[in-house]
Amino acid sequence: MTQHDRHRSHGHEHGHGHGHGHHNDGDLADLLDLDAEVHGSYLGDLTEWLGRHTPDAPSTVVDVGAGTGTGSLALARQFPASEVIAIDRSPVMLDRVLAAARGQGVAERMRVVQADLDLGWPAAVGGVDLAWAASSLHEVADPDRVLREIHDALNPGGLLVVVEMDALPRFLPDDLGTGTPGLETRCHELLAEADWNAHPDWRPHLGRAGFEVAEQRSFAVDANPAPPRTGLYARAYFARIRAFLDGQLDADDLAALDHLLDDENPGSLLRRGDLTVRGSRTAWAARRP
Q1: Is residue 189 over pLDDT 70?
Q2: Which of 13, 90, 93, 133 shows the greatest Cβ crowding within 10 Å of its Cβ?
Q3: What local confidence, expressed as pLDDT, does residue 278 receive?
Q4: What spatial distance separates the first Cα and last Cα of the chain, rounded to whole Å?
Q5: What angle in degrees, to the nearest 10, is found between the helix axes of 25-39 and 230-245?
Q6: What average pLDDT does the structure give for the chain?
């Protein structure tokens, strides 16, 4: 299994637009919307930061691998005079983008383009002032080629912002009241050994594609108390890692995971009042000279 295949299979379970198959796009779209609700607290700070790197209001903004449009809508809010183009290979995702744009009153400024970036950059998208690629570059087969194509689609002086999740999210207190404290940390250690959430440092890739990196910055995700549907999201997340860690965690830790995933249990993820949301994102701002 190549590094790219590992990314597709488990490195980023929320790949936006390229790592998912058409048969489960509806389920993935639901998960992406839930992910945005639970982890979206950093978006305001991030879009304000990129706005400082874009002193002139961009005419055309592109969301590369848009998923259900969380980034597209954040960009539309940050730049109220811009046209926003959402690119994704999935019509299911793009339908969600348009529905969300109508709900937020920005549909007249939102355009969607169905394209699989593994097959090439869409010819209809050019003259771009700002491109945004959040958790999507690691999903394509040849990110260096895609970066060159984004570079060519940007106007001179145009900006690309790449965003990645720094580490797997954390939800649990150290002591769950059952099992040995530190369960989440032990899970993360095993997942890290398997390259879950692996992604490159994009700085050298950006340089090879012709960009000049203006700034790299981290943004914290820290919600306490957690958003209302965090338990639902955490249940989906832990169910996925439970399947992967079967046979790797010891019996007591697997029993503790099963305790969390048993919806009828008073200590289950859906019933706990002590969940938090912790994590971070790294963003690279790079300009076409």
Answers
A1: yes
A2: 133
A3: 96
A4: 37
A5: 120
A6: 90
pLDDT in the model for residue 192: 92
- Going by their DSSP bridges, the two strands 277-287 and 60-64 should be labelled as unpaired
Q: Which residue has the higher pLDDT, 9 or 122?
A: 122
| 178, 256 contact by CB (below 8 A) | yes
Element (H, E) at 163: strand 154-165
Q: How far is CA 113 from CA 37, 85, 236, in A?
A: 24, 7, 29
pLDDT digits (tens, 9 = 90+) for 198-237: 889 999 999 999 999 999 999 999 998 999 999 999 999 9
| Structure letter (DSSP) for residue 6 | H
CA nearest to 199, candidates 1, 4, 16: 4
Q: Which amino acid is at 155?
A: N
Strands 212-223 and 277-287, by their bridges, are: antiparallel
Q: Which helix (H) or strand (E) holds 184?
A: helix 183-193
CATH architecture of 3-167+198-223+279-287: 3-Layer(aba) Sandwich (3.40)
Q: Is 264 exposed, middle or buried (0-12, 13-18, 19+ CB in 10 A)?
A: exposed
Tell me the whole-structure pTM to 2 decimals. Answer: 0.89
Phi-psi map region of 51: left, alpha, beta (phi>0 left; psi -120 to 50 alpha): alpha
